[in-house]
Write a structure and sequence with these properties.
heterodimer, A: about 375 residues, alpha/beta, Rossmann fold, 2 domains, five-stranded parallel sheet, 18 helices, globular, disordered N terminus, disordered C terminus, B: about 100 residues, alpha+beta, SH3 type barrels, six-stranded antiparallel sheet, 2 helices, 6 strands, about 25% helix, about 35% strand
């Protein structure tokens, strides 16, 4: 039934949204206790916050954004490497949302202000072009993002880039983060909404071992408001029925197997290795590092990157108060942070979650910061 | 950086397609797309690479979705629209 529901959805029909909210409420009533579910995608949080979807959720349901923003989980020392490279006089190309991400003490924007050759690019290809245009100068691509973005980096690596082009990979791998959250003893997440676009690459079957191992259902969702609501209905169906299954609620984009050409390209160039995610922990298989065969493109091998001058291990007063990591683990919300909206704002972010348009704090700040409007304008429960 | 934006393929030269995104012509790489692409197809752009050929029966639905996102013209910063515009710009300007 839910499958038909997701397929007949037409984007933003309020009547359908209400019907979905009612279905959710019925499920929560049947479950009879509080339930927490997590999504792991900044685009989902944008849709949820922008359309105020938390307002229609049942009171017993907590919808939490997990570590679903690649910018936010890029670790400070990784940014330090890029800042140090800019300080060495090489060109550093970065996606725009990484520009203001603080390292342990400085960001690439700071490096740029100091005269560093930092360029914002929308595609790795622009970095390759820059390298072709300046054959005598070194160009490093600060390669960030989850597997969807890593595939593009991998394709560029395979397309015989010029010799003066190299890659500083801080790519992250989403399934590893879900493992981490599900296995954390502190969290009580009973279901996951998986990111639709990452799943275009990996396919939804990749979540099946996860669902079985952690006994937690997973629903793959698109980022339309009704996509998100329908996926939560399906997820609460599965929780009610105690089925730790994977359901694809985004069939217009995601297949079981995903994109085989993209996966081949990705794993030819990258391998999943353990790495530190900012504010969270060392994540087994959480980082995508260049394989040894691509050492000639690896900025970490090409340059002696000394981050000593730009590194500050002793966090400043403000950074010590930042709770981004706790927020990304689903243990706190931005409103629990003393800095949120005061000392930490998009213009001068303290924590990583305020930097990116996909970070929880930035999204909440932009869309009013108080998405928990349950009880306000709830026609479903008040009018029956 | 995480959104995919749909566009119509106007021409193909090897691994590079010229694609129309809501009136803006950009070049996209075809290295990693899931299925063979021909002129007239719609593809999803992610940071300058086509990541999916959109099945014809789903084209209208997908386009409508993005037109709605792009249509937001409020004075307030709209994060999703900004990301979509960034993704559109991710294709290279046609030389």
């Amino acid at each position: 039934m839910a499958k038909d529901l997701t397929q007949e959805l037409k984007f933003r029909d309020p009547a359908k949204a209400r019907a979905l909210a009612e279905a959710m409420q019925r499920n929560l009533d049947a479950i009879g206790r509080e339930v927490s579910v997590m999504h792991v995608c900044g685009s989902h949080e944008q849709a949820i916050a922008r359309f105020g979807l938390r307002a229609v959720l049942p009171r017993q349901l907590q919808l939490i954004m997990g570590p679903g923003c690649p910018v936010c989980v890029t670790d400070g020392p990784e940014v330090d490497e890029a800042v140090a490279l800019a300080g060495m006089g090489v060109h550093v190309c970065t996606y725009g949302d990484m520009l203001r991400l603080p390292g342990t003490s400085r960001s690439l924007a700071d490096a740029q202000a100091d005269g560093g050759k930092v360029h914002v690019v929308y595609s790795v290809d622009q970095a390759v072009e820059l390298a072709r245009a300046h054959p005598a100068e070194e160009v490093v691509f600060f390669a960030s993002g989850f597997e969807t973005t890593a595939v593009a980096t991998a394709a560029a690596a395979l397309a015989q880039p010029p010799k003066n082009f190299s890659i500083l990979s801080v790519h992250k791998y989403v399934p590893a983060a879900m493992d981490l959250v599900a296995q954390s003893k502190q969290t009580k997440i009973e279901g996951f909404i998986a990111a639709g676009h990452a799943a275009i690459i990996t396919g939804w079957a990749i979540f099946e071992p996860f669902a079985q191992k952690t006994n937690t259902p997973v629903v793959v969702a698109g980022f339309e408001p009704l996509d998100v609501l329908a996926s939560i209905v399906k997820l609460t169906d599965l929780i009610r029925e105690r089925k730790a299954e994977v359901f694809n609620a985004y069939p217009r984009c995601v297949t079981r197997e995903g994109s085989q050409p993209a996966q081949r390209v990705l794993w030819k160039v990258f391998e999943a290795r353990s790495g530190k995610w900012r504010g969270i922990a060392e994540v087994p298989e959480g980082n995508l590092d260049l394989r040894p065969e691509f050492a000639h493109l690896d900025a970490r091998k090409r340059f002696r990157i000394d981050t000593g001058a730009v590194r500050d291990e002793a966090a400043s007063g403000l950074e010590a108060e930042c709770i981004c990591g706790t927020i990304m683990m689903g243990l706190a919300s931005p409103h629990d942070c003393t800095l949120f909206g005061k000392a930490c704002v998009p213009e001068s972010p303290v924590g990583a979650c305020m930097v990116s348009s996909e970070g929880t704090c930035r999204i909440w700040h932009t869309y009013g910061g108080a998405p928990d409007l349950r009880g306000v304008g709830l026609p479903a429960s008040s009018e029956g | 950086m995480c959104l995919g934006v749909p566009g119509k393929v106007l021409a193909i030269d090897g691994m590079v397609a010229t694609v129309d995104f809501f009136g803006v012509k950009k070049e996209l790489r075809l290295d990693i797309v899931d299925e063979p692409v021909t002129v007239g197809d719609y593809v999803l752009n992610h940071v300058g690479y086509a990541i999916r050929r959109i099945p014809p029966e789903e084209v209208q639905e997908t386009l409508a979705l993005f037109e709605q996102i792009l249509d937001i013209t409020g004075a307030r910063e709209d994060l999703m629209a900004m990301d979509v515009q960034g993704e559109i710009a991710a294709g290279r300007a046609k030389a």
